[in-house]
RNA sequence: GCGCCCGUAGCUCAGCUGGAUAGAGCGUUGGACUACGAAUCCAAAGGUCGCAGGUUCGAAUCCUGCCGGGCGCACCA
């Protein structure tokens, strides 16, 4: 619908094709179904009063398809459009025809995109911050797939640094403490309960006491990492997040990709040696200063492997990379981007979405968490306590760049405080209407356009208008990488439906199921269309759409 | 000190990239079912959009400077 109006405007006045025309849904009904400010936007460029431009546009409008009921110029120069009911009925029919594919678009045109997210260190269980990243990342992926992108979900495993060594030391120390409580624990070791569990499990699998200390620590590190990765996979699986690929940092070293990356940078003259270390000239490309790739002790830094990793992403044919990171990594962005741009990567090849921190509340108090101190509530515990649907939905009700208060007691409540039930209830309610109709002997069938024309209530047109916004909402989400808009949209669609439904509470003639078979069928069609959109939307959120609650 | 994010109703947050009278949920007050499901709906009350300038026909939105809060500023990962 928007596209059609835009086309009509472009045909009515000469506009630079690059000029953007914003078409919005006005907040007040007397301003029409759609409005544009194009006349005001062009006023200064054309040196003409906006109302004059608007008049020019309006008088040149050619409505070949006959979708426009009325056009008005209002206020300083807005052009307001009213759409004919018939055009709305056609849109409604389109939803019914496309069903689970309604909203599917080819914005991406098959573009190969890698979305890397969660990427938690395998040194402990996932926590609530990871959960937020998982929810946002996975929903973004689902929406991108639905809009024509070829998406790969990847989890980057940081298994190369000394944190894995530290994990091994922590496990080994716990093992020794079983027999010798005085055995020292590593200074920055991992204190969580899970380390003790790992020590128990690993010592049952293998006789650690017969091994040399070094060997035992190495074994604990390797095995501990494996077990934790399994748990991470299980948790994500239960959350409905399935990665296509798990990429090990260690493998970058083993396959020589880090060396190769360094060599390539060297050939481009981007490296130099200073104080026994190898540096990269990122400061010339937007970073605060140059960075070390190889320390004076000969070890590569994490940054080196990260550069190699992103070069490898591109070599694997990805035309775009999206990384979803915790906000505490923001300082790292300029250097990574600089390192890629300096070797000729397109400016926006890598896009990074920062997810702000989550504050966990329980019993009216903030729960402070730290992996080192071992005081935390795990992702798994939360998921078991509040449920996947509520969790995924709540994480997407806030913009990703705003910190989020996650109140367990609140999210757990299965009542009106929880927006996920509001949307799910609308879905269940529609299913219930269909059950009721069947009980009454109504046979619902696909409507033709003619029949839909009995939908005359303003609330009915309003409902169609809201439902057909769905594809546009998805488009906006993709353009801005703001998946949280979907929950707002669904909540508002559910609201419009609930209001419509309640028209029938005291007035049977306004119910969906009435004595008039044609009207009933048309209203069932409308309800079905709403159900389809809610169902498609919830699917993209990874939230279930129950038929009963 | 420098950088990034946030500051909107009592609370938690949206605000369609500069538009018309700033929205939702919760909370408060008052209403609507012998039922197409009340997990819903209707109504009321509640705002100097952190502060001060600037840009223009027009600013919660863009720019500058302050003030608060969070997070970063390694030859760690």
CATH superfamily of one domain: Isoleucyl-tRNA Synthetase, Domain 1
The assigned structural class equals alpha/beta
Mean pLDDT: 92
Distance, first to last CA? 35 Å
Shape verdict: globular
Determine the CATH topology of one domain: Isoleucyl-tRNA Synthetase, Domain 1
CATH class of one domain: Mainly Alpha
- Low-confidence runs (pLDDT<50, min 5 residues)? none
In what order do the strands lie side by side in the largest sheet? 7-6-5-11-12
Summed up, the helix count is 21
> How many β-strands, per DSSP?
15
Percent of residues in beta strands: 5-15%
Into which percent range does the helicity of residues fall?
40-55%
CA-atom Rg in angstroms: 29 Å
Named at the architecture level, the CATH assignment of one domain is: Orthogonal Bundle
Largest sheet: 5 strands, parallel
Descriptive tags:
alpha/beta, Isoleucyl-tRNA Synthetase, Domain 1, five-stranded parallel β-sheet, four-stranded antiparallel β-sheet, 15 strands, 49% helix, RNA-binding
Structure description:
The protein is an alpha/beta fold. It is 49% helix and 13% strand. The protein contains 21 helices and 15 strands. The structure holds one RNA strand of 77 nucleotides.
What's the helix and strand layout?
Layout: H1 2-12, E1 23-24, E2 34-36, H2 38-46, H3 50-59, E3 68-74, E4 78-83, H4 85-98, E5 112-116, H5 128-146, E6 150-157, H6 162-179, H7 193-205, H8 213-238, E7 245-248, H9 249-254, H10 257-267, E8 271-274, E9 277-280, E10 291-294, H11 302-315, E11 320-326, H12 333-341, E12 350-355, E13 358-362, E14 365-367, H13 379-386, H14 388-395, E15 404-407, H15 408-412, H16 419-439, H17 449-452, H18 458-467, H19 470-480, H20 485-502, H21 517-541
Parallel strand pairs: 5-6, 5-11, 6-7, 11-12, 13-15
Antiparallel strand pairs: 1-2, 2-4, 3-4, 8-9, 9-10, 13-14
Helix pairs in contact: 2-3, 4-18, 4-21, 5-14, 6-7, 6-8, 10-11, 13-14, 16-20, 16-21, 18-20, 18-21, 20-21
The chain binds one RNA strand of 77 nucleotides through helix 2, strand 9, strand 10, helix 11 and strand 15.
């Amino acid at each position: 619908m928007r596209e059609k109006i835009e086309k009509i405007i472009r045909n009515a006045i000469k506009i630079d094709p690059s000029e953007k025309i914003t078409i919005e849904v006005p907040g007040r009904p007397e301003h029409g179904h759609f409005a544009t400010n194009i006349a005001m936007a062009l006023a200064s460029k054309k040196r003409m009063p906006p109302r004059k431009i608007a008049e020019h546009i309006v008088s040149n409008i050619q409505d070949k398809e006959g979708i426009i009921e009325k056009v008005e110029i209002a206020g300083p120069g807005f052009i307001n459009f009213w759409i004919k009911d018939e055009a709305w009925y056609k849109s409604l029919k389109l939803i019914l025809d496309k069903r689970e594919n309604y909203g599917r678009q080819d914005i991406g045109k098959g573009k190969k995109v890698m979305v890397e997210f969660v990427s938690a260190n395998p040194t402990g269980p996932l926590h609530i911050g990871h959960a937020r990243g998982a929810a946002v990342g996975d929903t973004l992926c689902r929406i991108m797939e639905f809009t024509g992108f070829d998406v790969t979900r990847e989890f980057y495993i940081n298994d190369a640094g000394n944190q894995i060594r530290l994990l091994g030391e922590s496990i080994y120390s716990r093992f020794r403490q079983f027999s010798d409580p005085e055995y020292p624990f590593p200074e920055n070791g991992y204190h969580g309960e899970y380390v003790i569990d790992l020590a128990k499990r690993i010592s049952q699998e293998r006789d650690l006491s017969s091994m040399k200390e070094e060997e035992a620590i190495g074994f604990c590190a390797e095995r501990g990492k494996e077990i934790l990765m399994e748990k991470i996979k299980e948790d994500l699986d239960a959350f409905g997040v399935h990665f296509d690929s798990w990429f090990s940092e260690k493998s970058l070293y083993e396959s020589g990709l880090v060396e190769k990356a360094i060599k390539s940078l060297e050939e481009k003259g981007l490296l130099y040696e200073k104080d026994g270390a190898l540096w990269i000239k990122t400061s010339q490309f937007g970073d605060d200063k140059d960075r070390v790739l190889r320390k004076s002790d000969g070890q590569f830094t994490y940054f080196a492997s990260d550069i190699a990793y992103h070069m490898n992403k591109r070599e694997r044919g990805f035309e775009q990379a999206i990384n979803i990171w915790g906000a505490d990594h923001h300082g790292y962005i300029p250097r990574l981007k600089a390192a890629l741009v300096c070797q000729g990567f397109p400016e926006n090849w890598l896009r990074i979405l920062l997810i702000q921190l989550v504050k966990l509340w329980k019993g009216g108090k903030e729960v402070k968490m730290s992996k080192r101190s071992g005081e935390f509530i795990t992702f798994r515990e939360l998921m078991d306590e509040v449920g996947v649907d509520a969790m995924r939905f709540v994480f997407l009700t806030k913009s990703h760049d705003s910190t989020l208060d996650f109140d367990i007691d609140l999210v757990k409540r299965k009542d009106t405080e929880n927006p996920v039930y509001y949307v799910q209830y609308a879905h269940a309610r529609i299913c219930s209407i269909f059950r009721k109709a069947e009980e009454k002997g109504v046979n619902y069938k696909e409507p033709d356009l003619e029949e839909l024309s009995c939908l005359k209530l303003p609330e009915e047109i309003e409902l169609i208008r809201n439902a057909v916004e769905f594809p546009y909402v998805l488009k906006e989400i993709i353009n801005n990488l703001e998946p949280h808009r979907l929950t707002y949209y669904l909540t508002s669609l559910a609201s419009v439906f609930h209001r419509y439904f309640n028209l029938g509470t005291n007035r049977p003639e306004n119910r969906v199921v009435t004595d008039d078979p044609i009207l009933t069928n048309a209203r069932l069609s409308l309800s079905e269309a709403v159900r389809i959109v809610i169902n498609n939307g919830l699917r993209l959120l990874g939230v279930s759409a129950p038929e009963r609650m």
